[in-house]
Amino acid sequence: MESRREKNPMTEEESDGLIAARRIQRLSLHLSPSLTPSPSLPLVQTETCSARSKKLDVNGEALSLYMRGKHIDIQEKIFDFFNSRPDLQTPIEISKDDHRELCMNQLIGLVREAGVRPFRYVADDPEKYFAIMEAVGSVDMSLGIKMGVQYSLWGGSVINLGTKKHRDKYFDGIDNLDYTGCFAMTELHHGSNVQGLQTTATFDPLKDEFVIDTPNDGAIKWWIGNAAVHGKFATVFARLILPTHDSKGVSDMGVHAFIVPIRDMKTHQTLPGVEIQDCGHKVGLNGVDNGALRFRSVRIPRDNLLNRFGDVSRDGTYTSSLPTINKRFGATLGELVGGRVGLAYASVGVLKISATIAIRYSLLRQQFGPPKQPEVSILDYQSQQHKLMPMLASTYAYHFATVYLVEKYSEMKKTHDEQLVADVHALSAGLKSYVTSYTAKALSVCREACGGHGYAAVNRFGSLRNDHDIFQTFEGDNTVLLQQVAADLLKRYKEKFQGGTLTVTWSYLRESMNTYLSQPNPVTARWEGEDHLRDPKFQLDAFRYRTSRLLQNVAARLQKHSKTLGGFGAWNRCLNHLLTLAESHIETVILAKFIEAVKNCPDPSAKAALKLACDLYALDRIWKDIGTYRNVDYVAPNKAKVCFLV
């Protein structure tokens, strides 16, 4: 033992200190590559497989500017504010009640101290609003959701479903947080099926009031954000019941939205007839105070009906510019599509954070290596690259796709074009479902990729995963939303054969079905070599071919099964096929937007980097569904092998 100590006199503490110093040095080099490393701290050698490609020097500033666009300043303002306020930063360990109060104080600080007023952009500049939401969500996801409840849901319902009188009365109070509010749509027994809501709003012509009632336990409004603690108002979705002079006595006019005060403005006490319960501790997002609302003959003025799409006069006469309940319902939900747009966009923000943490850690963490040589970065292992590099490419792809969605949504809000409304509705449903499902899975992959350290709460994977998980459910269950996309595709398919026109997002289907399906084994698809695999035309043609073939096949299957099972039974029999079709279509849109973004990038180095990411995204998706392409011989065996090796 003594001789060992003489040969190696370094103590255990000194050894630990050297290891710590080496890791800190490597972290410094990662954050500031210009620093000169110490000779005693050799850099990790580049693995052969990752060194075979020519090094690409990327102008990071130019890439960041291209990615973040014109709203960098407002995002940096938000980051600077919260960085300057440690008292408004969410600690790792915090109780539910404390988190709720902190979240409310964070929102008050953002609005009243930092001077950021998100509500002013909800209708007039949605792109800026969603940029604010992305920045706020990166501070604390609960804060992002609470802001969305206040401004996009409660505030958005008032300005989008109401008229000038509602905007004049409520806008300033919603904007400055004097009028905190809720969005009371979901009921205990009805979530996705909004037309099945049971809460009633019965008009009383004698007192010129609506009477809001919860007829049974199943009609209790459930999971209502801002309800348990902070909300003073609620937009309540209820069936409008009007008295009639026929044998029925009443007429159900369908689901409408009403402004219902739930707490006293001065005392904050619950108002008569309103019962509020706390939904309690949740898996995540515990900074948001979700509650349950029950109404027992709560009276509100007739003016509290949000009457953009339907109104009731003093004598109880109903008027609407839309002729049917279904059309009024569709128009109402169409104005609320911003929630889905925001969730898709916010989910990409979560994916950016988690992928960044996992990739940076993988660059710094070293394990094993060649005999008698330094350990290598775990990102040099092919298995780690396969986990994280396609995820990085997907993150860029989803960013550009959701930016496109926000742009289309902004255009829709300005023009109110009916076809654009339908296009945004289907696209937002598809992207919200696809992106949030991917991010939910990616969060677990990132945690596992970071080993034991990924399990530490300080590294955020646990809180990100728990907070994001519900993104797959609220604003529309993902499986239900994908069915909406599939239904819309089938509608377009039918219109195509009846000579109708296809919107821009779906226009590729006409060319696909006319050309690709008539050539199930195109010669170009069999060309080999990296250059052809990296050709964006080949990539997009492959995606479009798959979607068009799935669409043609599922249409034929539905027609066949509907003869014996009826419409509902046939749809259920083909449900997995329909979901695959919807996902394929969304992937096609994503790739098209990624290719377009690469083409439009002004900086050559950033453009080259994005092109590599785009190629990886496309080829990874083709490889994961290689069976589909091989089954119809769209991709020859040798080409499939090259696709895997690229």
UniProtKB/TrEMBL annotation:
Cofactor or coenzyme needed: FAD
Domain Acyl-CoA oxidase C-terminal: 535-640
Acyl-CoA oxidase/dehydrogenase middle domain span: 182-298
Primary location group: other
Alphabetic keyword roster: FAD, Fatty acid metabolism, Flavoprotein, Lipid metabolism, Oxidoreductase, Peroxisome, Transit peptide
Compartments where located: Peroxisome
GO molecular function: acyl-CoA oxidase activity; FAD binding; fatty acid binding
GO cellular component: peroxisome
Entry's Gene Ontology BP terms: fatty acid beta-oxidation using acyl-CoA oxidase
Sites where the protein binds FAD: T186, G225
Catalytic residues (UniProt): E475 (proton acceptor)
Ranges for domain Acyl-CoA oxidase C-alpha1: 334-489
Assigned protein family: Belongs to the acyl-CoA oxidase family.
UniProt name for this protein: Acyl-coenzyme A oxidase
Annotated organism of origin: Arabidopsis thaliana
